[in-house]
Amino acid sequence: MDMTNWLQKRVRLSPKETALVFEGKEETFEEINQAVEILAGKLFARGIRKDQMIALLGKNDRMTFLLIHALQQLGAVTLFLNNRLTKKEIAFQLMNAEVKEVIVADSLEDKITTGIRYTELQETEYEKPELLETWDLTRVSSIMYTSGTTGKPKGVIQTYENHWWSAVSSVLNLGLTEKDSWLCAVPIFHISGLSIMMRSIIYGIPVYLEEHFDEAKITQLLESGHVSTISVVTSMLERLLKMKEGSYHPNVRTVLLGGGPASKTVLEICKQRDIPLVQSFGMTETASQIVTLPPKDALNKIGSSGKALFPAEVKIADDGEILLKGPSITPGYLNNEEATNAAFTDGWFKTGDIGYLDDDGFLFVLERRSDLIISGGENIYPTEIEHVITSYGAVKEVAVVGKPDDKWGSVPVAYVVVDEVFKEAELFGICETNLASYKIPKQIVIVDKLPKTASGKIQRNKLKERHSK
User: What Pfam families does the entry give (predicted)?
Assistant: First the structure.
């Protein structure tokens, strides 16, 4: 099915409405479109054409925002590179994806061998580009490599249909008002950030783009009345809660939480402060959230990720794995037929997560299947232990992983970031009070920081590797 070019259609519908707010400067959809067309002409002059695989290595800034749209206008396929990766990790993705060209922010050029720097591109002579007026929704729009929390990254294919249905599914659940805008402090090279950009064009709402997550500045924006929605992961939410007591401006109607469940303590704080927290569940493979709590159920289903968005479906396999079906789900992995085949069973996508549906059909996510610790035949869920450990105020962050053990097969080990008043004996006392003996960590390891992906997810595999060396 062909659909009109989203940006061009949005300009025809609402040219004077605000599209982007970056570093205090507002730009309309009309102004953004003009800037995008100029950039597309410079990319075209550099030989970039429809269907070519073009890698983009940038930051959360205006230039990267414009380039994402410019590449779409030309019909190129964008490989989004995570700017926190090493040069070696990036080189693997460039080779695996068979990239034609790399466009790179000047400050990141040391992470690649060759490419077009932003300043070089801006100095390029304009050539009238061949822009797409329509696109087939089955066309590949973007490629994102999995964050690598479970092992070697795979290139997730995202079509225009995937992005379209993600945006439509979200708005059918969260609704849309004339006051809406979306604060984007998550990376736009990650699906959580890119999906905000796609929704902005489809809904006709502004993106408030932030280069970094600065909780003081984010709090000011949430109190300004200009923002209705923000996407956060648990670590961001916890930092925001420490910034101030109370709620935000009444115009803030959705604090959308992804990237893993929040602790009961955090959820109760949000409830007490009347912060409109909405939990969700999604993946790179589902083009962002695919299971989300309806706002009206946010407080009476604490701990749940919600129900599958319209028109997606969710079910639980016999072994507890969460299975999904719907039009926002990836058609597969780039140049990896084996991984694609392994990811689906009878048309259902295998998430690799374990969970259950309650009597009302609400999904509760328990654990990554690969993170489950099986000790002496008992299933141990790391998040259960982590929630107990974080109840001790001297612990700032924690990650629990399994360590190979000759007697039990595997035992839990806790990695903690702590403050100066931390006492190990006190923490063990809390664990003994709240956990069965086999769930109590056999070792507490104090670290300066936990390894994380660009989206803020803890990389448990990096911690597990410490036990295999």
Answer: AMP-binding, AMP-binding_C
